[in-house]
Write a structure and sequence with these properties.
155 residues, alpha+beta, Protein Transport Mog1p, Chain A, seven-stranded antiparallel sheet, 2 helices, 17% helix, 33% strand, globular
């Protein structure tokens, strides 16, 4: 089985924004993992948060110029190639658009990591919000709130 490349680390309450100005606010109580990256400070391309005291829990906001369709196709190809059966793979309404959410786990039985990734088409590419946590750990309420607030926002 090929190693799955993930982009999920973590940080505090920074405000990454889509080109249309809608911001993602990191989960309350989580720590920022450094300075946002990307050309325009008002529109960072990468922000990360982590939950203090939990080495497996992270949230990453990534805005790239890759197309939404290509990003989703790459995920599905990865699932097929690596024989991954996602626990969740469905469309998701977010910011008045049709986005997509996938959730899957990987790793050895005693150290599995659960990855929950939201993809959202952006005017100039795709935004992904990736939340990772140890298998058996419930979905963090503050992460749910951040994602719900972001998806409910009207650009």
């Amino acid at each position: 089985m090929r190693m799955i490349t993930l982009l999920a680390i973590v940080g505090a309450t920074a405000l990454p924004a889509l080109a249309d100005g809608t911001a993602f606010v990191g989960p309350a109580g989580w720590s920022s993992s450094g300075t946002p990256t990307g050309g325009d400070p008002a529109h960072p391309t990468l922000l990360q948060w982590h939950l203090p005291g939990d080495s497996a829990a992270s949230v990453t906001y990534l805005h790239t110029t890759t197309s939404y369709d290509d990003s989703l196709a790459a995920i599905h190809t990865n699932f097929t190639t690596n024989h991954i059966r996602p626990a969740l793979d469905k469309d998701l309404p977010c910011q008045g658009k049709t986005g997509h959410v996938v959730e899957f786990s990987f790793g050895p039985d005693d150290h599995k990591i659960v990855i929950n990734r939201i993809l959202l088409p952006a005017p100039d590419g795709v935004v992904t919000i990736t939340y990772s946590r140890a298998d058996g750990t419930p979905f963090d309420a503050d992460v749910q709130k951040s994602e719900a607030t972001f998806c409910a926002a009207t650009p």
